[in-house]
Amino acid sequence: MSIHVNPRRVTAPDIAARKGGAPIVALTSYHAHTAAIADKHCDFLLVGDSLGMVMHGYETTVPVPLELMVMHGRAVVRGSKRALVVVDMPFGTYEESPSMAFRNAARVMKETDCGAVKLEGGRRTAETTRYLVERGIPVMAHIGMTPQSINVLGGFKTQGRSRDQWEAIEEDARLVAEAGAFAVVLEAITAPLAERITKAIPIPTIGIGASAGCDGQILVMEDMLGISPDVPKFVKKFGAIGKAIDDAIADYAAEVRARTFPKAEHTYALKGNEASDKASEQATKKPKTSST
Ligand code: KIV
User: Fold this and answer.
1) Best of 29, 31, 46, 223 to mutate for ligand 1, by most ligand atoms within 8 A of CB?
2) Which residue owns the Cα nearest ligand 1 atom 3?
3) What is the DSSP code (8-state) at residue 149?
4) 120-150 pLDDT tens trace
5) Domains of the chain, each with CATH number or no CATH
6) Of the four listed, 31, 106, 197, 282, which is most buried by Cβ atoms within 10 Å?
7) What is the pTM assigned to this prediction?
8) Protein residue with least CA distance to atom 1, ligand 1
């Protein structure tokens, strides 16, 4: 007899301990089924506020409400078993004061059962990061191109292209590390700056458009799968799933219009009709979908 024990989940300290070691693998995830797949390969899954753009069609992440993060956070925690789940704090839920940030982050932790939250900002969120960590909430920081500040930055622009911007970005990294963040996302910054920061701070750097010199990498899952219509230069498409979905839906539409779908094996027969019963048994044995 064997006893099945669920593997222990990766924790924020586990990720912190990976500084300078084997590269940390991460992806965004917003829903249970893809979380289950990514869980097999990733050290952590980020329920990014990019879900506002990817799942809900907003133009930026600015309008994303906390409720959406909680809802998708729950789905990703339910869908995964092993990876650390990190949930983004959306714009307007943590900037005003450390106590406001604690209230909202505690709600995210309690209602999703995730293992950490992520805050955008360096110097400006360092005090809040310290406040949350001291009260039991692991924080991942996010510096460089911070999409929630798009209205101040004037667009999704690469940061650190000129050396006179480096000091401020390096200082952001140092301050969040000192404040107790367990890792920091470096988004859309030049490769030499990312390498310099990675060498300078004691916590793992997670790059997205910041070079292989970081301690780990993250991408938006839909971007790397080839589902998102427009992706930044730093994305490599590891799949062509958008095309596969398009082809499958085109085939489905054609078969419905030609009345070649559904066939007998996809239908239910009256009791007593053995041949049709067999066919319907086969159909019910098929893996469950959300409509069964
Ligand atoms: O929201 C998000 O997907 C993110 C990643 C781009 C790091 O913050």
Assistant:
1) 46
2) 48
3) G
4) 999 999 999 999 999 999 999 999 999 999 9
5) 12-239 (3.20.20.60), 246-283 (no CATH)
6) 197
7) 0.91
8) 48
